[in-house]
Design brief:
Blueprint lengths: L1 H13 L8 E2 L10 E7 L5 E10 L4 E10 L4 E3 L8 E7 L2 E6 L8 E6 L6 E2 L9 E4 L5 E8 L21 E2 L3 E2 L4 E8 L5 E3 L7 E6 L6 E6 L10 E6 L8 E2 L17 E2 L5 E6 L12 E6 L5 E4 L6 E6 L5 E7 L4 E7 L5 E3 L6 E7 L5 E7 L2 E9 L1 E4 L10 E2 L3 E8 L2 E8 L10 E7 L13 H8 L3 E6 L8 H4 L9 H15 L3 E11 L1 H10 L5 E7 L5 H4 L6 H8 L6 H7 L1 H4 L7 E7 L8 H12 L4 E6 L9 H19 L4
Parallel strand pairs: 1-32, 35-36, 35-37, 37-38, 38-39, 39-40
Antiparallel strand pairs: 2-3, 3-4, 4-5, 6-7, 7-8, 8-9, 10-11, 11-14, 12-13, 14-15, 16-17, 17-18, 18-19, 20-21, 21-22, 22-23, 24-25, 25-26, 26-27, 28-29, 29-30, 30-31, 33-34, 34-36
Amino acid sequence: MRFFVLAAAAVAIATPLAAQEKTAVMLDDIHKLVDISGPAFSPDGEFIAYTASTHNLKLDETVSDLWRVSWEGDTAQLTHTPTKSEWAPSYGGDSIAYLSDAAEKDETQVFIMPAGGGEARQVTKIKGGVSDYALSPDGKTLIAVAEVGPSVGADPDKPKPIVITRFKFKEDYRGYVDGRRYQFFRVDVASGEAEQITETGADYYLPSWSPDGSQIAFVAANTDREDRNYSYDVYVMAPRKGANPRKISTFEGADADPGLGVRPRWSPDGDKLVWLQNGEDKWIYYAPFQLTYADLESGEVKPLAHIDRWMYAPHWAPDSKSVYALVEQDRDTWAAKIDLATEEVTYLTSGPRFGFDLAVSSNGRVAVLDGEENRPYELGAVEEGVRPLTHHNDWLENRRLAEMRDISFRSGKHEIHGLLILPLGYEEGERYPVIARLHGGPVYQFSHEFIFDWQYYAANGYAVLAVNPRGSSGRGFDFAKAIYADWGNVDVKDISAGIDYAIDIGIADPERIGVGGWSYGGILTDYMIASDKRIKAAVSGAGMANFLAGYGADQYMLEYEEEVGLPWRDRKAFERISYPFLQADRITAATMFQCAGADLNVPCIGSEQMYLALRSREIDTELVVYPGENHGLTRPSFLYDRLERNLAWYDKYLKAGE
């Protein structure tokens, strides 16, 4: 299937668009999308290696290969493995290292290949597999991150009891967390010989080599009251066993939180480090992630351009005098350059676009991985504007895509922003069924980005309402923390005000209102159906409505205690945010509940309890479980099924009689 998709894209590029009749988005198109990630420049700045993920329908799996694009825009596929995956490429010397599940027992290990392509070989054979790595600048050594503990690599056919003593005892994709620890291994690339260089009393994350290869920076947690705070710190040490780590960060909260997946980065002159810093522990993810840098010689640690906006993907400029980063705006995310001396922020991209990742070369070239409302993520060269480099999804030029409009409206005294996607073939004055899509997070936002679901709903006659209610990112700390410990209150009011707006401007049919979302979007769906009687149909994916039962069932042990409290001490707070379950007799909307069977982020218990509550009350409802999947579905047949099932559900209750 991988080669069919790429061939189809190539044909679409080669055939003159004028000779092709554009068609509406079809459900099968979900399998044609190519997902781009992980860009990394070659040492000379002439090439960018990246990962392209596609659907293998025969295996029913999402698989990925490595690709390379030149600065001129010439692409080449580096790996051709339709049944295995390669990802996370990085250059070192004249080689490219990467992670792959092609090792024995399908374990993830580090492989290496010539930078220009060619035969690859497996470098690591670490028991239990590798979760992360960093390749030295000369390509001769790597630091591999792997779990160590009695249960690592255990025979799944001979299971043993799982003994747990940690406070944070489960995690999505990782499972139950017993005595296992993430440790660093120094690996000789030529021989594959590996030596553990860290001690097992703590977890170590996100290694990063200094430019001269003499040191590594990394992140480790403060093990005092382990898992009971976010006290991650940045350290530097020589990359050898017995070396003494030197703590660099000074903030009491989270520095370079491993959950963000952004490693501390060395300046090219080797004198400084930059990383992302969270806010105070109590604000969890509500406070914007900010840039912080350290002068390693003086030990001074400074904030960099704290502008009350979330920042991502920091990279140093070659002169070590400025930092590139992605900076979130209202409904957009742009690439920016921040001067260390003046803290001036200069935006390199602008307009309606959503930046997802950055790469910066040693000779000052900047590439952005971003998208727009009618274009999925692709790599582009940041020059005077953005020059496209990759074209994996150009086949979409042969599709008629729905129009997206910016919207603003009042919710009480507050101005709320969002997006409205018009039905394909929209006619002024005609009213349409509307689906209010609710985003996850909760601290996230809908942006000017291509979302296949929206286009598919619009192609089937729906208006799609995408509101960024209070609690969303993009508009600063105060806007985000408006729902702190008060979920399902002002955000519900803002969504309902958005529905009012869509009705008032004559687009939404007030008798045909639907809602739906996944993760916090599923949670917010539960709040909406318990609050707004106009809703006729809903799809709640990976939601939770009884947080008394959620405590200990999901992975948010510390988050509950920081934001909501303890069930036996703060029962009223838990009951207040659990009103969709505890007051399920308020719900009249036909609601489908969906969940992923292996999800420890938002487990199926949340969907199961709401399903039973509505089934008990004889409200039209269904429960759909996607077995074996974690929080984000990846199996192509499940992604297809979910969207097909969602549309059929909305059609049944919002288009009856058409």
